[in-house]
Design goal:
Layout: E1 12-18, E2 27-33, H1 51-64, E3 67-73, H2 75-81, H3 83-96, E4 104-108, E5 120-123, H4 131-154, H5 160-163, H6 169-178, H7 193-196
Helix pairs in contact: 1-4, 2-3
EC number: 3.1.26.4
InterPro entries: RNase_HII, RNase_HII/HIII, RNase_HII/HIII_dom, RNaseH-like_sf, RNaseH_sf
GO molecular function, one term: RNA-DNA hybrid ribonuclease activity
Length: 199
Amino acid sequence: MLLTNLSEFLLECGTDEAGRGCLAGPVTAAAVILSSDFNNSVLNDSKQLSETKRDLLKPIIEADAVAFGVAHVYQEEIDTINILNASILAMHKSIEKLSPKPEFIIVDGNKFKPFLDVPFETIIKGDSKYLSIAAASVLAKTYRDAYMNRIHEEYPMYNWKQNKGYPTKEHREAIKKYGITKYHRKSFRLLPEQLKLNI
């Protein structure tokens, strides 16, 4: 059973990101404030849910949340500031969109930088412990997937519709065959070392 709140604050927001380990596309974060009486038996860490369930939950979360925000940080910025900083920046940008503003922030993972002067707590595997982080994980994942589906139309040979930019064997084979696109993260090791020797 996922918990509602960690703090005593009424306006507690959960935040999480998606796409951190991808070779292409943005890292996407969401922040969600839920009311203390919010309940949903299906909601869980987005990685534990099927795409169908995530797509069903997205409009429910958006309709029932006190506030939510979603933000992308794109590959050019990831290459400039690195993926950890880009993930935290995406979380900050998603929190900035919240109205009302949160009084407390709970973050999935163990790394975060202070957002203004709002107190926060990082929680390892928070998306499987707290409803607001689980809700944020679902929004981050569904918004990022929708973006990857759009850019798939532009470069169908990488099959982003299926792999969403993650380093699947097929995605790496396509990079080997076609090279990289403007959507690829150039600072990432796009091909394993042993493949680089053959190019």
